[in-house]
């Protein structure tokens, strides 16, 4: 099965997935085509079976075909892989189609085979409904979508110094938080979030008065691996110093394993097992006002440090 790309409502363009996805600058799809042209028949035959690749995806269900075990999904951009688009996907477990409805928002794992011709046989697996379109069923996990004005629970975490901290302790300051894990290899996911936070931290530091009224927090959802020692080393990479006061304005912390689900579900962070033991996850960055309530929420990697810095200044002035 090759991908069918929906160009507009009622218009479907059938093309190979290699033509539809966006790769890195050197072009994985182009590389595959070149390999097909230059490789021997035996090599091409071996590659034809394809290497299974997985990518995190999130979006809204447009339609469900339970008989075929398929859905049409309007999904966000998949960093490093393809742009946002609306297209049909086969479900790895066709039985879950009965639990999906048009309008449902989901996170899932996208499975594709990488061959010499591009990417083929897309399937969705490990689907989590994060927002229901119809109240006639109840998913196993309930996710909360942060909205301006929502009071943030006083979640408990352990920071890079091994000290227990609480979100409530930052009341009176503007708190910007995001979710990462230190082993994340994707430049458009955790690495970009940490680089953006480093730029924001540097900009805030240039304004001592604003610096004193703000705080940054990077939260790991990998408690087994991201110990305080690991978080400290990771944090120093982005803060740029191991001085005693290095973490005075930016904490790196992880919740106790038993409290991880409540925290990630409140901030709409979908997490599923991925390749090589690494989690597949969605993104979530939240700006919390001095009153401990959500001011803004960013569900993708498309926000810029300048954009969020402006929102921080507005929140601090309120």
Counted up, domains total 2
Question: Which topology of the largest domain does CATH recognise?
Answer: Glutaredoxin
**Rg, nearest Å:** 21 Å
Please, how many helices? 8
* Corresponding CATH superfamily of the largest domain: Glutaredoxin
Summarize this structure as a short list of keywords or feature phrases.
318 residues, globular, OB fold (Dihydrolipoamide Acetyltransferase, E2P), Glutaredoxin, single chain, alpha+beta, 8 helices, 16 strands, seven-stranded mixed sheet, five-stranded mixed beta barrel
Structural notes for this entry:
- The chain has 318 residues and is an alpha+beta fold.
- It folds into two domains: 4-131, Copper binding periplasmic protein CusF (OB fold (Dihydrolipoamide Acetyltransferase, E2P)), CATH 2.40.50.320; 156-317, 3-Layer(aba) Sandwich (Glutaredoxin), CATH 3.40.30.10.
- 24% of the residues lie in helices and 32% in strands.
- Helix 4 (190-205) packs across helix 8 (305-317).
- The longest helix has 16 residues, at 190-205.
- It starts with a strand and ends with a helix.
- Residues 1-48 have low confidence and may be disordered.
